[in-house]
Amino acid sequence: MLDRYARPAMAKIWSMENQYKAWLKVEIAIDQAWAEQGLISSDELKAIKKNASFDLDRIKEIENQTHHDIVAFTRAVSETLGAEKKWIHYGVTSTDVVDTANGLRLKQANQIILEDLKKLHALLKEQAVQYKDTVMIGRTHGVHAEPTSWGVKLARWYDEIGRHIKRFERASSAVEVGQISGAVGTFANIPPVIEESVCDLLGLKNQPITSQVLPRDLHADYLSTITLIGSSLENFATEIRSLQRTEIREVQEFFDKKQKGSSAMPHKRNPIGCENISGLARVLRGYLVPAYEDITLWHERDISHSSVERIVLPDATTLIDYMLTRFTKILAQLEVYPNRMKENLNKTGGLVYSQRVLLKLIDSGLSREAAYDLVQPLTANAWDKGISFEKLVKESPEIKQKLSSDNLADAFDYNYHLRRIDEVFKRLRIN
Length: 431
Prior knowledge:
The structure is a single chain. The chain has helices at about 10-15, 15-35, 40-50, 55-65, 70-80, 95-130, 150-175, 190-200, 215-245, 270-285, 290-295, 305-335, 340-345, 355-365, 370-385, 390-395, 395-400, 405-410, 420-425, and strands at about 135-140, 145-150, 175-180, 205, 250, 335. By secondary structure, the chain is mainly alpha-helical. The longest helix has about 35 residues, at about 95-130. The relative contact order is 0.11. The model has no long low-confidence stretch (mean pLDDT about 95).
């Protein structure tokens, strides 16, 4: 992943050094499990734990000859040991080490991502409460519909991230697994008890059955979940981008005093953070096709998935960490303009209360059809001529016959539309 989108903690997890550290942890855990079965002496295990190490340059040098990264790694490690080196990689195959080590690194990455999700979730809850009664116009098809509040919008996002937390906990748990089953997964040269011990030592679950590799539907499901999270972030970011447009300007990304919005136009303040989120969500979705295609492997294994995962697993986890962190910062610093929201709400002269007038007329005894046909021409007149709909309604003889002035005033009160928000928040357990 580009340094631009990689936070240090996640970059460290996917570094080559950490890859080899994870491989070595797996190899040592395998030897410890063998020692528990009496195959390796305590002195040999002690020597392996004390001395087994690796040198990045030496691994690269050997791999240039062997064209096999695990062979290069095990030979480099063996060079740091004495006679006990014979127990390195004993009874196992390459993917036992690679897949199990990937489970270790994914577990490290998942801890970061889950913490990111929880931070955003908490912020959304806080701001939903803060802006619960901050009235604004709701839009359908991009057109003014009826009043809502900024807090309601944030509460929807809060609920969405809550669903993602549950999904991620499930999908991440499924890839925090290991397998030490040997060639073609039959345990012919290594008993299942070794796999169970190794996974227990490493804090992983063991996959009940494998071929020579872990089943890749686990990883496809995991990447699907990450991509869903990214797509939700894009949904939120797109809303902010739309509301920041000059014609609307109800919210705005924070703009630092020394920040520049355009190389040509000094006045520009662009929603670059949210645009960044939108772009990176497209990249995440691009990883889904190869992840799904990785499910299909020849017989008990091939390595067509390997090259894909060297890219998509580090990149997807790194990107979602960056996106969650960046969007949380955008939201924390977001400038919200309640007065502009009210101004836009009133821009159509009360047209957004047409349903409220319609329902009051129905309550007064008119049929729905008659009430609709009475109200719609007034809305058309207001739309086409820019006349206040509220004024037209209050001057209509037919409507005045049915509704009192107090009743009509109530029809144009936005508070009516916010009256059940507390019930909605209660459903979400937002205090």
